Amino acid sequence: MATAALLTAPGRLEIVDDVEIEEPRAGEVRVRVEWCGVCHSDLHVLDDETPTAVTGGLLGHEVAGVVDVLGAGVTDLEVGDHVVVSMIGPCGDCEACFNGATAACTRQYGRGGVAADGSTRLSRGAAPITRLLRVGGFVEYTVVQQECVVRISKELPLDLATVLACSGQTGFGAVTNIAEVSAGDTIVVIGLGGVGLAAVQAARIAGATVILGIDPIASRRALAERLGATATRAPQDVTAHLGAELAGPQRFRHAIDTVSNAATLGMGAGLIGPGGTLVILGVTAPTTPLEGLFTADLVLGQKRVLGCYLGSSIPRR
């Protein structure tokens, strides 16, 4: 039996100590959860901003822990390994993976946390426990596919490693895999939480020469500057001419929007110049329309708007 924090109603987590954890099946790994971050996506579900009909489910998908049991056929991990668990573990061998849509891999656990055979590997009494964000990290142990488990150095503290599972992957992948930022590029990052700060660092590593960070919180802006941002602004200080002032007459080449509301989408589109790329990665409610963009601006400016989910990452790579 294991202890878990179950989502029993909007806004309510209940601590229980009678969750049954199955032994891992072929190709699966059971991980002892040492740390699990609280991503804003968890809070969206908890606060009923991203509605779900499931109750009694598990949130939590930024897991760092220790390999506890290996299923048959798992040969590249060992019991005792320190690992990060990703909510996406592409198999690399299905049509979705071939097309580069790693988040839609047909072998991994779906958004409802149900495996291909319909089971979830966790239960309470006779009722299966659904993992709302694939991993189900608010529990002492979780069972996941081997593709989701990435070995890390034991020198890296597990409480810090948790951010690699989601925000690190998302921000870094948005810059490297989606926007494909290269040396000499210019980029603006809107929203300087965990994801935005990872994007700032990725842009610095990629060799971007101008990196603008935008956030209403001064401490976040200051941290972004320490991590590589060449300039920061509060949203109210962003003007129509800022792109040209900081990045030159062609404005910014790329914009990463970690918030994805009408105000930030319009801001990002306005800061990029002709041929620029706007990457949207903030997850909103399923019924939220795309607002804040003007078709004439996109068409005449030949701008691209791209979606990004978990950085289009292959975690083990």
Structure description:
The protein is α/β, with parallel strands linked by helices. Helices cover 23% and strands 28% of the residues. The protein has 9 helices and 16 strands. The strands form 3 sheets. Strands 13-12-11-14-15-16 form a 6-stranded parallel beta sheet, sandwiched between helices. It has a 5-stranded antiparallel beta sheet with strand order 4-1-2-7-8, with no helix packed on it. It has a 5-stranded antiparallel beta sheet with strand order 9-3-5-6-10. The chain is elongated and about 60 Å long. It starts with a strand and ends in a 10-residue tail after the last strand. 45% of the residues are buried.
Question: How would you sum up this structure in a few lines?
Answer:
This protein is of the alpha/beta class and 317 residues long. It has helices at 40-46, 95-98, 158-161, 167-178, 194-206, 218-227, 242-247, 262-271, 295-300, and strands at 2-9, 12-21, 28-37, 57-58, 62-70, 82-85, 122-124, 127-128, 141-145, 149-151, 186-190, 210-214, 231-233, 252-257, 272-280, 304-307. Helix 9 links the parallel strand 15 (272-280) and strand 16 (304-307).
The general outline is: elongated
Total individual domains: 2
| Tally of helical runs | 9
What is the H-and-E element order?
EEEHEEEHEEEEHHEHEHEHEHEHE
Q: CATH homologous superfamily of the largest domain?
A: Medium-chain alcohol dehydrogenases, catalytic domain
The number of strands is 16
Helix-strand makeup class: alpha/beta
Distance between the termini: 34 Å
Question: Which percent band covers the strand fraction?
Answer: 25-35%
Q: Could you describe the largest sheet, including whether it forms a barrel?
A: 6 strands, parallel
* Helix amount: 10-25%
Taking pLDDT < 50 over at least 5 consecutive residues as the criterion, the unreliable ranges are: none
Mean pLDDT: 91
Radius of gyration: 20 Å
CATH-defined architecture of the largest domain: Alpha-Beta Complex
Q: Please give the order of strands in the largest beta sheet.
A: 13-12-11-14-15-16
Please write the CATH class name of the largest domain: Alpha Beta
Fold-level CATH name of the largest domain: Quinone Oxidoreductase, Chain A, domain 1
